[in-house]
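TA notes, week 10

Several of you asked for a full example with nothing omitted. So below is the full record: structure tokens for the whole chain, then the designed sequence directly under it. When grading your own attempts, check the secondary structure regions first.
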């Protein structure tokens, strides 16, 4: 019995990312751009911001990483007022019913080069959940020189079909396929929370002086 318990514990330890660090995404430095084709003439874009979520990442073993994010769709902007209104309506994203999208990874695979990964997971959008695969490039792992917090940055690319998520209005005049490019910074959770608290305390002290 003892031997079986030891073997089971060893198996669990072997499967677990022992040195994974928990990171939190920095909303100020995490954003995405969605691009589509309009009648073959142009490739307009929309941008989303204020992404929140968590990342488990071990630089020595990135294939054991995991990620979970929430994207507030209400932050999306095309730069065109009428199109923004269309996106908010029930004809498109229906923000009243579906104000956010979520992504949760199910597995991570090593890419062709040491700085690339394929992150597979479930994307929930417009009330529909589908598996998607993101091509990820790790930009940098290190310490942010401005706040001295351990940080990881990366780019992620994925092509989606609007119709898969019940968003196929105007296909094929407006392309069914859309390209999504995400750039992100994630900071080590505990150190980043301590930094934010210290920053808030400094700001409060400055206000108290005046």
């Amino acid at each position: 019995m003892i031997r079986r318990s030891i073997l089971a514990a060893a198996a669990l330890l072997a499967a677990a990312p022992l040195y994974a660090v928990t990171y939190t995404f920095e909303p100020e430095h995490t954003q995405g751009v969605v691009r589509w084709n309009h009648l073959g003439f142009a490739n307009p874009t929309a941008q989303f911001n204020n992404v929140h979520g968590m990342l488990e990442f071990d630089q020595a073993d990135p294939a054991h990483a995991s990620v979970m994010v929430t994207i507030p769709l209400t932050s999306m902007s095309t730069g065109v007022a009428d199109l923004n209104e269309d996106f908010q309506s029930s004809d498109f994203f229906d923000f009243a019913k579906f104000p956010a999208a979520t992504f949760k990874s199910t597995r991570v695979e090593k890419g062709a080069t040491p700085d690339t990964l394929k992150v597979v997971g479930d994307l929930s959008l417009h009330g529909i959940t589908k598996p998607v695969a993101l091509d990820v490039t790790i930009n940098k792992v290190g310490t942010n020189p401005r706040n001295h917090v351990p940080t990881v940055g990366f780019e992620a690319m994925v092509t989606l079909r609007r119709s898969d998520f019940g968003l196929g209005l105007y296909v094929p005049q407006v392309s069914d396929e859309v390209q999504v490019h995400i750039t992100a910074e994630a900071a080590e959770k505990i150190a980043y929370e301590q930094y934010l608290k210290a920053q808030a305390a400094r700001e409060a002290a400055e206000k108290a002086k005046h």
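The chain has three helices and ten strands. Use that as a sanity check on your answer.
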